[in-house]
Amino acid sequence: MPDLVRLYIRNVLVGFALSAVFVGALLGLNVANLWHLVSTSPMGWVAGLMLFVFNGIVFAGVQFGIVIMRMEDRDGDSGRGRRMPVGPAVPVLAHATISTRKAQRRD
Questions:
Q1: Residue 7: which residues within 8 A CB-CB, separation 6 or more?
Q2: How far apart are CA 24 and CA 51, in angstroms?
Q3: pLDDT digit string, tens, across residues 36-87
Q4: In terms of Cα–Cα distance, which of 50, 64, 49, 51 is closest to 15?
Q5: Which residues lie below 8 Å from residue 38, measured CB to CB, with a gap of 6+?
Q6: Distance CA 35, CA 26 (A)
Q7: How far apart are the C-alpha atoms of 107 and 36, rounded to whole Å?
Q8: pTM higher than 0.85, yes or no?
């Protein structure tokens, strides 16, 4: 299996684990009376499952994005960019014109 796929699967698992903790905390702390709504409704388990899945998708995407952005590729590069000399600043004359038309007002 390619390394990038392995990295993605690992981060998806971490994202869904974070989602389980987050949804557990939401229900356990009864934020916005969510535990009561989920536990007393006949279809409350669907709401809990949706919370888990959708938060898992978000957390997995964020986790993978963070890991990809933190990856380094050092091939002897100093990481400071190319140092190209810049010529001296030369002032340039710019001509500006003023429109003589007045804006029409609607009354």
A1: 64, 67
A2: 10
A3: 999 999 999 999 999 999 999 999 999 999 999 998 766 666 666 677 777 8
A4: 64
A5: 27, 44, 45, 47, 48
A6: 8
A7: 58
A8: no
Does an H or E element contain 21, and which?
Answer: helix 3-28
Instruction: Dump pLDDT digits (tens) for 8-39.
Output: 999 999 999 999 999 999 999 999 999 999 99
Question: Which two structure tokens, joined as six digits, stand for 106?
Answer: 């609607």
Structure-token pair, residue 5: 């796929």
Nearest-CA neighbor of 38 among 47, 50, 29? 47
DSSP secondary-structure letter at 66? Answer: H
Could you tell me if 58 and 65 are in contact, meaning their C-beta atoms sit under 8 angstroms apart? no
End-to-end alpha-carbon separation of the chain, Å?
71
CB 64 within 8 A of CB 12: yes
Q: Are 66 and 6 a contacting pair, CB within 8 Å? A: no
Contact (CB, 8 A) for 62 and 21: no
